[in-house]
Amino acid sequence: MTLQCQEKYQIDSTSKWIQEEEWVATFEYEKYNFALTLKNDTIINGAKYFKMFMDGQFYWDYRNFGSGIDTISNLYYGAVREDSGKILLILPDSNSYIALYDFNYNVSDTIHTLVGNGLIIQDIETLEDGRKKYITNSPGQLFIVEGIGSNHGFYSNPNIPSPQYLIDTVLGCYYQNDSLIFINDPAVCYFQLPIGIVDEVMNSIYLFPNPASNIIKIVIDDPITSLEIIDINCNIQNVVFERPNLVNVSSLCNGIYLMIVNKKQRIKFIKK
């Protein structure tokens, strides 16, 4: 038995999900850090949908071609809409919808949507903003948040061809109206910030130059009491201070990094 939801947490054209995926095949590895956004309205089969797009970057490592980092921009990801507490999805090159999520479940109900199909709702928690958090019996600890999606991402990439296999997918955070609504994995969330832009909930901080090859100057109002640099695999890197507010990154490999200053201020930079 299900109880109809009031749809008070509707997705809209300001919705943005930030997530990470890892794919692997024989002698191939890809890691995606990207944002899913709803940018345009469209009418499909007489119903209003939001077009969903992917923007971000991915790291690739191919045995015969080396490795690198590429950018993904405005990649069409499908179309979604809400109806009676459900999120419906139309895949690219399709006109038929499938149920992606259903937020009408009660404890002990079995999930019958694309995400979590066959799992059982073991518990329902209420978050601070009133959203329901559905805990499942998944061995991978899958949970679903009302109006947002699962902790494994809103939706997994439909554009990766076989024989690649998805080995991990993580929701970093969810934004709406440019406000941070829900955070699941800070490392994934902050890695998706545009280059050189600090998260809006943090104090101002700037890096110069960015990208950088050797020395980076950190412009910040407060004294620097701690600093960490984390690579795209979430490994902490050793760095050397030349003098206050100047850090030597010459020993780092080329790539994208996250700098965390005073344990709270985060900004992304490129080592070239």
Structure description:
This protein is mainly beta. 2% of the residues lie in helices and 52% in strands. The protein has one helix at 186-191; strands spanning 16-25, 28-44, 47-62, 66-83, 86-90, 97-102, 121-126, 132-136, 143-145, 149-150, 165-176, 179-183, 205-208, 215-220, 227-230, 236-237, 240-243, 246-248, 255-261, 265-271. The radius of gyration is 20 Å and the shape is globular. It starts with 15 loop residues before the first strand and ends with a strand.
SSE arrangement:
Layout: E1 16-25, E2 28-44, E3 47-62, E4 66-83, E5 86-90, E6 97-102, E7 121-126, E8 132-136, E9 143-145, E10 149-150, E11 165-176, E12 179-183, H1 186-191, E13 205-208, E14 215-220, E15 227-230, E16 236-237, E17 240-243, E18 246-248, E19 255-261, E20 265-271
Antiparallel strand pairs: 1-2, 1-11, 2-3, 3-4, 4-5, 5-6, 7-8, 8-9, 9-10, 11-12, 13-14, 14-18, 15-16, 15-19, 17-18, 19-20
Summarize this entry quickly.
The chain is mostly beta strands and 272 residues long.
Strand content: over 45%
Distance between the termini: 57 Å
Main-sheet strand order equals: 6-5-4-3-2-1-11-12
Weakly predicted, low-confidence segments: 1-6, 194-203
Helix percent reads: under 10%
Shape: globular
Q: What's the domain count?
A: 2
* Overall residue-averaged pLDDT value: 83
Structural class comes to mainly beta
H/E element order: EEEEEEEEEEEEHEEEEEEEE
Q: Describe the biggest sheet?
A: 8 strands, antiparallel
Radius of gyration over C-alpha positions, nearest whole angstrom: 20 Å
Strand element count: 20
The number of distinct helices, counting runs of at least 4 residues, comes to 1
